[in-house]
Amino acid sequence: MLNNKKDNLSDKELVSGSRKLGFLNNQISYLILVIVIIAVVASVINPNFLTLRNFLNVMQQISILGILTMCMSLLMISGGLDISIGNMAGLIAIIFARMLLAGISIFLGVIVALALGIFLGFINGVIIAKSKVTPLIITLGMSYVFLGIALIVGGGRPQTITGQFSFLGEAKIGGVVPVSIVIFFVIFLFAFFLRKYTKYGRRLNAIGGNSQAAFLSGINVDWHVISIYTLSGLIVGFTSLILVSRLGMVRADSGSDYALQALAAAIIGGITFEGGRGSLVGAFFGVVLLGFIYNAMNIIGVNSYVQTIVLGAIIVVATVISQLGVGRLRR
Amino acid sequence: MENQSSEKQIILEVKNIYMEFPGVKALTDFSFNLYNGEVHALIGENGAGKSTFIKVLSGAKIPNSGEIIIGREKHNSLTPHQARRLGIQTVYQEDILVPSITAAENIFLGVESSNSKKAFINYKQIFTEAKELAKLIGIKLKVDEIYERLSPSDQQFVKILKALAQKPKVLILDEPTQAFNKNDIGLVIEMVKKISQEGVGVIYIAHDLEEIIEVADRVTVLRDGVKINTHDKKTDIFDPNSLAKEMIGRSVDLFYKKKESSVGDYVFEVQGLKLTPKSTPVSFKVREGEILGVAGLKGSGRSEIARAIFGALRKYEGKIFYKGKDITPNSPIQAVRSGIALLTESKKIDGLFMGQPVSHNITAVGLDNIGRFFLNLNKEKRYSGDFVKKLNIKTPSLEREVKFLSGGNQQKVVIAKWLFKGINVLIVDEPTHGIDVNAKTEVYELFTELAASGKSIIMISSEMPELISLSDRIIVVRNFEISRELLKDEINEENILSGFMGGK
Ligand SMILES: Nc1ncnc2c1ncn2[C@@H]1O[C@H](COP(=O)(O)OP(=O)(O)OP(=O)(O)O)[C@@H](O)[C@H]1O
Ligand SMILES: [Mg+2]
What we know:
The structure holds two protein chains of two kinds. Chain A is mainly α.
């Protein structure tokens, strides 16, 4: 077979070769399988589960998490991580709400929110690129900084702007498809194309895979690191607008849970801490799976404390599985 | 061994091993045996399956089928623990010991002895024991020195001593002399011979046929996972040409004869390069189409100078010019932009994205060639496929992650990466380490071609034949300064060696 053929391979073999090996593709099919199983089981227990309405409902519920998962995935692929995106979203949301309450125009408010996102992401990126300290520690610290500032800005009280800014969170295109779902899809496609089809994405991938080799290949590592955190910040700024719009009332910690959940979703989707690996399609299905599990638990009537335990357990199991997968290939 | 009364016995036998990876048959019906007290060398092209075989013996890989017989025990596969219990010790090239503790501590780390039961280390005792062990195999080693401060060859000795401390019956050395200069290779060979005289069976892998011929009692040739032949020193004369022919399947010229091409004007210049305020400035020029050899011993500063030129290592002062223009790079980013490339010595750490496909690795530096902003993935496939063919990189597909390629093929991927970028000045540091005789010739041809097309090549190398046959001119580096320059007609081994010593 292949083996005794001395002189390498034909073009076709070279290109198609062992595509089967791709652990990622496997991971995605597993995810879809699990999603289907959950859907079947849940709809047997409660027929309402498998309706278009409920499906759109789930997608709307996960849209914010989904967008943040795309940020997290892009960061992880480039060897980074940002635990502060949740509280960053909360902080920007509070500031935005305060501005609306102070009578500042929505237009100006949106500009400030986006600019703030860029700024905070940039700060994270600069500290991480220049200090070379592990991003986990830096962004964990920044997460508390953001939370603290949000508490000060909001005076520790919830900010209610019900009705003033509801388009992003509530509006439905054609009266059916919520805008936030569309935004989630657009950002997913954006991240997917950025990663796969641009030089920028390829370089992020290289940095995540081996930053020393990337540096010696003449890739501007610092610039890429800073820019991807900044881009992520911009998206977080935008997400915070959806958050305000959805909730109508924001607290300093409104975004707190998102960071870890986004991390979990990315890992479930096959993105690894190693960097340079995993696919955004996987991360997408990771989010959908998380959303389905939550929704199924709600519909079945699982108590919310138990739901928290389940989320934690899923993170552990998913990480272990992805680690085992990598390990098996190594041997 | 001649003076040993006992007859040679087979201590290890392997029968009909098959080992398959997705898309690759790494070993096919491979049988092999080892006597006590012999050095049995294993040779073959990159990707022939040498390392795979060794991993089967050390328990790191499980073969699809076959038998491993040691003493009275028969196994279908081994676990690392079993292998150790049966007295098989393996020294991998990429093994890493604990850098911050002494050589002696490293040697006895994890050794079962009366000592290991105690909570405290008896330094005196382990130093003495380590010294005795070293003496036994005829090497001098500062056993109380911190590991990371030892020279590369001494570090290698420590790895081997560590294996010996376990009192193995079988000692496996996978490319133990990679990155060594001739002197040190001689030391390793002597040591290995001593070890085998103690009755240990040694399996030895290397690409240098001269070295193999010197060290081995028997040589087994592997090609594409299949055993071609086993030669015995007693009945056969080892001949490099015929060994190479068996490895590759056709005859090759072991002594590369460079096609002469014309050399142009000086284009690249390093002016007054100082790494520290106190160091002597280094200045040299390279012509268009010239291959400038850089000779020097390990630790002479060759690699550091190269890194500094490339902007990867901070320099104190100095300027770099290309075609009269000051291009002094402060970082690799600028260097690459001005068309300078550096292939460093440790390709795996500095040059490869292990978890990523072959094609992505090849295009990593030259992404500009396959798109302005968006990537043209079809072009990427085509171009990287061309390089795979041109450099004869053995991989079942372009999408195979580089970490699954054999050592030598990984090396070729790094070279392809820079060639794809297209460059003016190529600085290579030990470009043919770990690659087989055939691939070496291919690399030499590439360099010659590049030079003929007007590129300048600066080639740091420890291999005399390579330096002598390829260089248009040689500078010898010693103690971070240029100790000697040899023009084409002065290039010979003697002159280079005298440069090492500081002779003019
Ligand atoms: N874990 C793995 N997964 C898939 N293929 C592998 C794996 N390890 C080795 N191979 C393949 O098996 C073949 C034999 O590789 P091996 O490392 O044994 O070669 P080698 O003779 O040691 O070569 P070199 O001289 O380059 O070190 C190669 O084609 C390699 O790509
Ligand atoms: Mg090998």
